[in-house]
Write a structure and sequence with these properties.
The structure is a single chain. The protein is built from six helices and 28 strands. 22% of the residues are buried. The chain is of the alpha+beta class. It folds into four domains: 33-161, Rossmann fold; 170-244, Immunoglobulins (Immunoglobulin-like); 247-314, Immunoglobulin-like; 324-457, Porin, CATH 2.40.160.
């Protein structure tokens, strides 16, 4: 019985050791195979065959666009591969230095007639584990459509004999991109395929069946991910992938509107309302937001291009007002007052200016100059209304000078009288009526004064 227990224990230990070895093998098998696809050396007579480099590019693009995106392989980006110049004598040393498993390389030349030559490809595949070329074959083809069949044959040989991957394939067709003026970068398994710049874009990608491929579409302007999808297809299956971008429009309340009037808002002739967030609008298109009053007069219009994933904020207003306004008044204790007002807010303004006047006192003539600053507030209406009523405060300094001194504007001679006042301002469109009362600080006493300004503000 004791011997039987020892035997069972030994079998258990052996099974655990065997199981652990299987785990190690499984983990090791997930390691990607490092593969280089080297553009073939062009050995054609370039004086005779001037376009011979074209067949180098056709072969490289065909191999890279399929083998380069297989998830189980570690293949550098195409721009890295294009910069590798490798001769047959240097393959083994290069593979050891770069720790590469498989190198696909070779050369080609053209022969026959100049107008319709034949291409002879010498395909070679180096296997570092065997330290030899496991494929060394010659393929001859015409330069017509037959060349693509020949390349497929070459690629099938590499897949099955060198990479132990089935030559069967499925196809992803990238098409139907409604992107307007947007630009996107297309990635498959974290490798860039192309930059998509127009709606007519079309690209076919062969993939290995029953293997996951990660497809990403990123906006070029902000690197934002517009599409992320994991694709797994069955043998010979074809799938189409396209993209349509969408954005949103936020329509804010109408500024400077007359509350006695009714307004209608339209986005591309479709009625919307103030404060509405409009979603699922196709990006890449031009949109127009317009505002019409109750007489169907267009009082606001903004044209804009909606970008993918954008939230476009539109601030409609009845009129496009400048914050700066010029005013001119008379009879407000001056013959003429000129000033400039600034509106930091639709109901509030600050202003500066100066008034001037002329008077005779007995046998003397005096010249008056009155620089001022003011601040006012509309408590009824604002610049969008025809009728507006506001009030404010004003501070000014009256400078009295004899006529001859006033004409020369010599301020060193004269009497100064500070004023502080309040005013009510009534406006109808550009006409201004402004009653004002001042507290005048004279040299000897303090007294009240008043005026009634009439003028305009533009």
């Amino acid at each position: 019985m004791r011997r039987f227990a020892i035997l069972i224990f030994c079998i258990f230990l052996f099974s655990v050791a065997f199981s652990d070895e299987n785990v190690k093998i499984s983990i090791g098998s997930e390691k990607k195979i490092k593969v280089l696809i080297i553009p073939f050396n062009n050995e054609a007579n370039k004086k005779i065959y001037k376009n011979s480099s074209l067949y180098r590019e056709i072969l490289f693009r065909s191999f890279y666009s399929f083998i380069g995106f297989i998830p189980s392989l570690d293949v550098p980006d195409d721009d890295v591969l294009r910069n590798i110049n490798l001769g047959s004598a240097l393959v083994e040393k290069f593979a050891e230095e770069k720790n590469v498993d498989i190198i696909i390389y070779g050369n080609y030349h053209l022969e026959g007639e100049r107008k319709e030559p034949e291409v002879v490809y010498n395909l070679k595949v180096w296997d570092s584990s065997k330290k030899t070329n496991i494929i060394d074959l010659k393929y001859k083809t015409s330069t017509g459509r037959e060349i693509f069949d020949t390349i497929d044959e070459m690629m099938s040989k590499v897949l099955t004999s060198a990479l132990n991957i089935s030559a069967d394939s499925a196809t992803i067709v990238f098409e139907n991109f409604n992107i307007g003026k947007e630009q996107y970068e297309l990635f498959v398994n974290n490798k860039k395929i192309d930059t998509i710049t127009n709606t007519d874009y079309n690209y076919k990608l062969r993939i290995v069946p029953d293997v996951d491929y990660v497809v990403q579409l990123k906006r070029k302007r902000d690197n934002g991910e517009a599409l992320h999808s994991v694709i797994r297809l069955q043998k010979y299956q074809i799938i189409s992938i396209g993209y349509t971008g969408y954005g949103k429009v936020q329509v804010n309340s109408i500024a400077y509107k007359d509350n006695l009037k009714k307004y209608s808002l339209f986005l591309n002739d479709k009625e919307v309302v103030e404060g509405q967030l409009i979603s699922n609008l196709q990006a890449g298109l031009k949109y127009t937001l317009s505002v019409k009053n109750d007489r169907q007069e267009e009082v606001f219009r903004e044209d804009f291009y909606l970008r993918d994933a954008e939230v476009k904020v539109v601030n409609p207003c009845e009129k496009d007002y400048s914050p700066w306004h010029f005013k001119a008044l008379t009879l407000d204790r001056n013959f003429l007052t000129l000033g400039i007002d600034y509106f930091p807010w639709r109901y509030f303004w600050v202003g500066i200016g100066a008034g001037a006047s002329y008077a005779s006192v007995g046998s003397n003539s005096l010249f008056f100059l009155s620089p001022f600053v003011e601040a006012g507030y509309y408590f009824m209406g604002d610049m969008a209304y025809d009728l507006r009523i506001g009030a404010g405060v004003v501070g000014r300094v009256n400078i009295f000078m004899p006529e001859d001194v006033g004409k020369s504007m010599d301020f060193s001679v004269g009497n100064y009288s500070p004023n502080a006042g309040i005013f009510v301002q009534l406006e109808w469109r550009f006409i201004v009526l402004r009653p004002v009362a001042y507290l005048v600080f004279g040299k000897e006493d303090i007294f009240f004064s008043y005026g009634l300004g009439i003028g305009f503000r533009l």
